[in-house]
Write a structure and sequence with these properties.
By secondary structure, the chain is an alpha/beta fold. The chain folds into 2 domains: 226 residues, 3-Layer(aba) Sandwich (Rossmann fold); 219 residues, P-loop containing nucleotide triphosphate hydrolases (Rossmann fold). The strands form 4 sheets. Strands 5-4-6-7-3-8-9-10-11 form a 9-stranded mixed beta sheet, with helices on both faces. Strands 16-15-17-18-14-19-20-21-22 form a 9-stranded mixed beta sheet, with helices on both faces. Strands 1-2 form a two-stranded antiparallel sheet. It is elongated and about 90 Å long. About 2% of the residues have low confidence.
């Protein structure tokens, strides 16, 4: 059985969901509406080929001039003029004016082939980008000629051994592109989408077809930043996590006693739920301190308090988080949930984890993410995040704000089944006094106390009276 040869795009996540990249010496269509990221995808494919895989590339634009393209490339941190001088990249702008086109005879792309052939041979190109191809046919109304020339263009690229990315504008209705033909003659079709949900933009990628190869199904979130494009593989995570028999302490001595005197399993996930003021953040800070005392790195994602405020507040219970931050053991990532869409938050968290390589991750509070998505969306994000953390053997603690008993978020969002240990905090009225209570609702794989403990704040940390 002949296996389809592929070449990597170098786009993080994309090569994973395509199991290797784009089909070699074939044409790939990248379609989408304005601002969806088509040109950026194509630029990154070309630059990664030239710099990382020793495959020079030709970028031919029918809309943007060379000067504008150079600025676009520089946004990725590359000097396109320097790369052109090294014969790694060739940039060409083909001016097409609709008002100057008239159908006075047979229309063909022979002149384009000559121009492309010259640019390819000049630098020994292996990759080609045409951005955007429908501009070539802006003034044509003869559909038969249009289809024939499009087919001839794609065949010419394949016959010359070029791995090509052709970008196209989104069409009307069911058509992927305006002409409605490029998707049929392309060997691979990638559709990019930029949608708005509750005033938050979310970008999605979908592989419509990939001849001769299996590929990821469904939609994949992606984003652009100073490092370029990143795609989040969603369906690649499987239930094949490594399991540890090792335990780590909770940071609260009395809670350790309730957990068979050993604490949590290393690499497990812990959910702490409760209403406002019950001590969720203090529980997270106690766990953070315990990990740092062991010399482990902690990554703390805060969606509610600034690091300065959190560090100040924790000093009231004898927890000095700033000390561990200065030692490089603790790193904060504080953002408002509404700054990004859910998928972007997940992607940024994964990147921070890859860069920081922590042993412990804190998300405080997880429930704030509901501000940028539904409970179903949050559940989907959390499942993917839990799988990712378990794959890396990271112990994670999530706090979540609830309105009553402390169990609502876990049951309504349906996330309790994927959590290994669940700590519920709640306020109880006793006469004219409000007392805090703690319950270990569950802890998989180990005995634990079912007693209701009274949670007490002291200047030496948390204590639990049972």
């Amino acid at each position: 059985m002949e296996i389809l040869e592929k070449i990597p795009t170098g786009i993080r996540g994309f090569d994973e969901i395509t199991e290797g990249g784009l089909p070699k010496a074939r044409c790939t269509l990248v379609a989408g509406g304005p601002g969806s990221g088509k040109t950026m995808f194509a630029m990154q494919f070309l630059l990664n080929g030239a710099i990382n895989y020793d495959e020079p590339g030709v970028f031919m634009s029918f809309e943007e001039k060379k000067e504008d393209l150079a600025k676009n490339f520089s946004s990725l941190g590359f000097d396109i003029n320097e790369l052109a001088a090294q014969k790694k990249v060739s940039i060409d702008y083909v001016r097409v004016e609709r008002k100057e086109i008239s159908e006075t005879g047979e229309y063909d792309l022979e002149g384009l082939f000559v121009r492309l052939d010259y640019a390819i041979k000049k630098i020994g190109a292996k990759r080609v980008v045409l951005d955007t191809v429908e501009s070539l046919f802006a003034g044509l109304s003869n559909g038969a000629i249009l289809r024939a020339e499009l087919r001839r263009l794609f065949e010419w690229l394949k016959d010359n051994g070029m791995t090509a990315v052709i970008t196209g504008e989104k069409g009307d209705g069911a058509a992927i592109t305006r002409q409605g033909l490029e998707e049929y003659v392309s060997d691979c079709v990638v559709v990019l989408d930029n949608r708005i949900y509750d005033q938050v933009a979310t970008r999605r990628l979908r592989i419509i077809k990939y001849r001769g190869s299996v590929h990821g199904q469904g939609e994949y979130p992606f984003l652009f930043d100073e490092l370029g494009m990143s795609v989040l593989p969603v369906s690649s995570l499987k239930l094949e996590h490594k399991v540890s028999e090792e335990h780590i302490l909770t940071g609260v001595k009395d809670l350790d006693a309730m957990m068979d005197d050993v604490g949590y399993f290393k690499g497990s996930t812990i959910l702490v739920t409760g209403s406002a003021g019950t001590g969720k953040s203090t529980m997270s800070a106690s766990f953070t301190e315990a990990a740092c005392k062991r010399g482990e790195k902690v990554l703390y994602f805060s969606f509610e308090e600034s690091p300065r405020q959190l560090k100040r507040n924790m000093r009231s219970v004898g927890i000095d988080l700033e000390k561990y931050e200065k030692q490089g053991l603790l790193k904060f990532h504080a953002t408002r949930p509404t700054e990004y869409g859910l998928e972007s938050h997940l992607l940024l968290m994964q990147r921070a984890i890859q860069e920081g390589k922590p042993s412990v991750v804190i998300i405080d509070p997880l429930s704030n993410l509901v501000m940028v998505g539904t409970l179903l969306d949050v559940k989907s994000i959390l499942i993917r995040l839990v799988d990712y953390l378990k794959d890396w053997g990271i112990t994670a603690m999530f706090s979540s704000l609830t309105s009553g008993t402390g169990t609502e978020f876990g049951t309504i969002a349906g996330i309790s089944s994927i959590i290994d240990s669940w700590i519920v905090l709640r306020d109880m009225r006793e006469g004219r006094e409000i007392k805090r209570e703690l319950i270990v609702l569950k802890s998989r794989g180990m005995p634990h106390s079912r007693k209701i403990g009274q949670l007490v704040f002291t200047d030496g940390g948390l204590k639990i009276l049972t």
